[in-house]
Design a protein that fits this description.
It is a single chain. With about 280 residues, the protein is of the alpha/beta class. The protein is built from nine helices and 15 strands. Strands 2-1-3-4-5 form a five-stranded parallel sheet. α4 links the parallel β4 and β5. The chain starts with a strand and ends with a helix.
Length: about 280
């Protein structure tokens, strides 16, 4: 059974902390537990130096360092014990004016008081998904693989009227579809603007261009096979002329197949061989 999300509540108002605790305790899915409460950013930082949590419910306006400054410290991994993943931040505040700055600091969500239980539950559900994706990524990587990207290494996109930041370590692939791109993680798909050519230049060697319409994380490629129509169906980007001699890669976690252009087959084979060598070593 998946462990409960450990939540740290940071708010200088005792009644606000009490209400948030009550809301968290009332949520049955995802399972959550309030690990601790703090009235100031300094108290929260001191607690985090000795403990870990998955989510911080964070007020903005507090005595001393405010919530934005505290979140900035978390983003820089200055307030977190080495070896522990940085907790996800969900701002809970009476002031909507700081939302843009909050998302610049990689906040998972921004809730305004009074918080509705349904809204908090949705935010915590996203936190649970993000935790699962992190675990899946780490289990798929070879032990000597490079460390996960720093917090600044992410893709920012608009999602139903709000900004969403997706760590590149969780991205399986980008695929061009009509005028948009699809970003795929282990549990979600997002539509975003942009061009694959720009992403390819920005992301460098971590992602492999397998086709004119697809850019795949190297670690996410599980196998390469010659396309058989009865085996894994029609492939995006493959026309009738290519069908007789086409290839496809299977993507980890989602068990999807993406077309591989003939000129990229050698590069994909090399990437798979490199993964095998790292595992063998």
């Amino acid at each position: 059974m998946t462990s409960a999300l450990r939540v740290l509540i940071v708010d200088d108002e005792p009644l606000a902390r009490l209400r948030l605790r009550g809301l968290v305790d009332a949520i049955q899915e995802p399972r959550c537990e309030v690990a601790a409460e703090a009235a100031t950013a300094s108290q929260a930082a001191a607690w985090l130096r000795e403990h870990g949590c998955d989510v911080v419910l964070l007020d903005v306006q507090m005595p001393g360092a405010d919530g934005l400054q505290f979140a900035d410290g978390l983003a820089q991994r200055q307030a977190v014990q080495p070896g522990l993943p940085a907790p996800l931040v969900i701002f809970v505040t009476a002031h909507a004016m700081h939302a843009l700055r909050a998302f610049e600091l990689e906040a998972l969500d921004y809730l305004t008081k009074p918080v509705r239980r349904e809204r908090l539950q949705a935010a915590l559900a996203r936190a649970a998904q993000r935790r699962s994706e992190r675990a899946a990524v780490q289990s798929a990587l070879p032990q000597d693989a490079p460390a996960a990207p720093e917090p600044a290494d992410f893709v920012t996109l608009a999602d139903r009227g709000r900004l969403l930041r997706v760590p590149l370590a969780e991205v399986l692939y980008f695929k061009a579809e009509l005028k948009y791109l699809t970003l795929r993680t282990a549990s979600e798909s997002h539509v975003m603007d942009g061009a694959l050519s720009e992403l390819e230049q920005r992301l460098g060697e971590r992602f492999l261009r397998v086709h004119r319409n697809a850019l795949v994380a190297r670690w996410a490629v599980r196998e390469l096979e010659r396309h058989a129509p009865t085996g894994f169906g029609d492939l995006d980007g493959v026309d009738a002329a290519e069908a007789a001699d086409s290839w496809a890669v299977r993507i980890v976690h989602v068990d999807e197949w993406l077309a591989v252009s003939r000129r990229q087959v050698a590069a994909v084979r090399e990437a798979l061989a490199g993964q095998a060598r790292r595992v063998a070593d």
